[in-house]
User: Fold this.
Amino acid sequence: MAADKDGGGGSGRSCFVLGASGATGGVLLRELLSRRLFSRVTLIGRRRLSLGEEASGVTVEQAVVDFERLGEHAAAFQGHDVGFCCLGTTRAKAGADGFVRVDRDYVAQAAELARAGGCKHFVLESSRGANPKSHFLYLRVKGEVENLVQALGFDRCTILRPAVLLCKRQESRPTEWMVQRFLGAVAWLFPTSYTVPVETVVRAMVAIVLQPGKGKVEVLENEAIHQLGKAVPQQGT
Assistant:
């Protein structure tokens, strides 16, 4: 694990981000670095990421880990005040077993290591409709991992349940482009019901960290995510 940038941003606090290469995690990383909310940000993932000039003023560390042997990387999870988990895959990419392994097993083990490493506040991106008793694999796994994370006893645990994410993908197939256009129209008609922009989810994560907790476990449904996301102004406004 090596530092890419040194600086004195933030308030002396430290955080880690799981899934910084993904749709939500990438936006979250840029937001954390540009706002300098933390003096040290640790990226935990399968590979190193290229960072731009927005990292100036913040100490960024990158821990490249083998998720199949995550217990050997406990040091990466030590000494953080806040942990952000945006880790996830899809059944289409990883198959049913791979999806369960990533979205439940990897996340639960990472949370356990974070708790043991002194993390006080764990922020988990889940999904609307998460339910451990659901007949749908996706929603059942999301519900199961929510329960596993809550059971660890963090001082504060925030679970966000966004609806369908609206985002700009680096690679977009024609079908995906059409779906995004359709969802954009749905969002215009029903702005808080069925969709949410990734940027709004990220700003909600920022807002929840900046404000005092309302209990050990906070679950934010899609409408609450929209409200919190609007409460934090965009950078440059």
